[in-house]
Amino acid sequence: MYAESERQLSTERYLREDSASRSLYERALQVMPGGNSRHTLVMDPYPIYATSGQGCIVTDVEGQERIDFVNNYTSLILGHSHPEVTDAVAEVIGKGTAFSLPTETDIRLAELLIERIPYIDQIRFANSGSEGVLLAVRAARAATGRSKIAKFEGCYHGIYDYAQASDSSRPRNWGDSERPATTLEPSMAKSLETEVVTLPLNDIEVCCELIDEHRDDLAAVLIDPLPAALGLIPPDPEFVTALRAKARKCGALLIADEVLSFRIDYRGACHRLGIEPDLVALGKIIGGGFPVGAVAGTAEVMSVFDHRDGELVHHGGTYNGNPVTMVAGYETMRRLTPDIFDKFDRLGDRVRDGLQQVLRRHGIEAVATGRGSLFAVVPGTEPPKNFRAVFTARSAAPQLQGIAREMFNRGILMGSRGLFGSLSTPMGDAEIDRFLEAADGAAAHVLAA
Ligand SMILES: Cc1ncc(COP(=O)(O)O)c(C=O)c1O
What is the pLDDT of residues 291-300, one digit of tens each? Predict the structure, then answer.
């Protein structure tokens, strides 16, 4: 693919004393702690700064182009600057970006999403996936009159304290596997240790025991149908069915976090994976490239937001449902027809099969995972079942991170999560070929080093 001289040039330019990225990083360090407002942008020794994106290509400040397999951590499903979405957004910006009066724009996006997602009747918009999760948790508390939340060890749900607890558990603090500790950052209130119940994925016996222990206080169980931190592997179907039944029996709601995984199916990840949640948190792709979050669910549960019923959850937000995000989201979502998801399934399978072959060819014990347009690689001989297994395997296979990093030098944009990525509609077989060629070269390079 890339001539060797071109490949070297790309690494050299970025790492040179006078590189534009280096000088931007030095400026950033003066004004932002660590030089950023988002920890996922951290890169060693400093990030590659971007100037523009078009379709599936991102250009950096050194003028280097790469195929973007990160898509702003999965949020850009049509790639960058889709011309028709951009035109629609430009038009709406010309008419005013936010009002203290409602507009038609959020109704249109709400109608589209409700028509597609079989398990929701109503929706409300916010400005980030974290807020979507927060609102789902608050709605569950209001609907049940209980306060505790159960979530799965190691799963990332954004930065709402109750959902973020235990997302970075480590062997030194995670405790007994049959009673996982609720681990906290120093910035979180100590009371979360009792307010958040941490569950092990795929172990229904332990989950039922822990749920029973807290049954009178438990408002909801929060689950990600395709958790990225656990290697994009869906929970076992029997486990989910039993968990659904258990939550219902105890009067707790089941919240699905589809902020990231919604992009795997026209009708949503829970539809694809056979999960029936009471509430769903959405974000990322539904904003068409603009900040967005949402909570959706059955009419009964969503009525907690209804001011006519006493408004059990007060939900303000200066930019909720703003016309720019709503138009971008609508114009994006309506272009995602069922045949697009079929194409993603096919191309995603090509990526997963191709990566598996690369791993086999280089003798790396790891499994290519994911669904539809999402893919990842997790170490081990078979897909791990829970966070502890993923964590332990990852620590033993540092070369995977190195391969993802080396792909930067071969024209592929990867993120800080290692071999984890997503597809966008401008991609076709040619981009997948280039991706797999780069992965093969990167694996050879890293193993030789
Ligand atoms: C599963 C999941 N939930 C919630 C969030 C939080 O979304 P946001 O970054 O928009 O706050 C993310 C973000 O990556 C996510 O992957």
Answer: 999 999 999 9
